[in-house]
TrEMBL record:
Gene Ontology cellular-component terms listed: cell surface; extracellular region
One term of GO molecular function: signaling receptor binding
Alphabetic keyword roster: Disulfide bond, Signal
Organism (species): Rhynochetos jubatus
Full protein name: VWDE protein
Domain called VWFD: residue spans: 236-297
Amino acid sequence: KLTSLALQPVITSELVEGRVHLKCTYSRPPSKPLLQYMVVWSRLSTPGKKEQIQRDTTPRSFSYVEMNGVNLKLGDTVFCTVTAFTRDTPEQQSLPEESKGFYAGIKFLPESLQIAEDGKEHVLTILSTVPIACPGHNDSCKITLQLSTEDLGKDSQLLGPPDITLSACQVDLLRSPCSESSCAAAALTVTAVTDFAQDGNRISRIRAEPLRRRDSLWRSYTPKDAKVTVQDLPTGNCYSFTDPHIITFDGWRYDNYKIGTFLLCRSVSREFEVHVRQWDCGGHRSATACNCGVAAR
C-alpha cells in the first residue's frame, strides 16, 4: 500500500453550465505526480447507512457530481471517498479518505435555539448550501421562503398557538458567491412570547417553505425545521378587585374608593400602560367605588 497521503477531501457546491453540481476537492501530493484517484460519491440513505451514487477514476484533483433531483436531491447528506493509486501499479493503493458530510439544501443556523420569556431578540440565519440556479433570471435570482411557526407538545402533537414570534413572515435568499458552505443567506430575529402564563417550558418549530419553485430541483423539497425551546419565567401579577382593593406587583396593598379614571400601571422601559375607571356603586350610608372599565396599551 501507499503510505498515508493526507488527501483531505472536501465537498463544495457550484454552478456548472447553469446546473447545480457538488465538487469533491482533495490534495495532490507533489512528490507523486503520476497518481490516479478513485472518487466514490455516496449519500446518507438512512441514519448510519450510505448508498453509492457515482464512481470516478481521474488524474485530476477534483471530481463533480450533478444534483439532478433523481439519485441526488436537495436534503441529501453527501460524502466523497478518495483513494489514490499509481498508474503503473493500480494494486498499490492509499487508504481511502472520506470527506465530512455535506448537507445539500437550506438550513437554519443554529439548528436549535434555547431562549427565555425575557423579551430579548435572537438572530437566526437561514442559508442555502447550494447555489440558486435561475435560468433567464440572473438579475434577481432568489428563493423566497414562507416562514411559519408551530407549537410542539408532548409526543410531537400540535397544541395551541406557538410560544415564539418572528421578525418576518417571508425572507429572500439572494444568490451570492459560495463561501464556507453558504451560497445565499438571510437573517431574522426570534423572540419568545411573554404570555404571563405559568405553562412550563415549551417547544416550537419554525418551518420554511420555498415559494414559486420554478426549478425542478426545488419543486419537491421542504427544508428541515428549526427547533426553539422557550424557558418559562415566573411573571408578576397585580390586582384591582371589589371596592377596589389593590395589590401591586411587589405585594403592597391599599384601597382606592375614589370615583374617576386612574393610572393603574405604567412601564418606564417600554410602551405599556393600564388605566382603570371607577364608578359609584355604594349606597347613601357609605361611599364605595367599583371598577367599571379598563384600558390597556
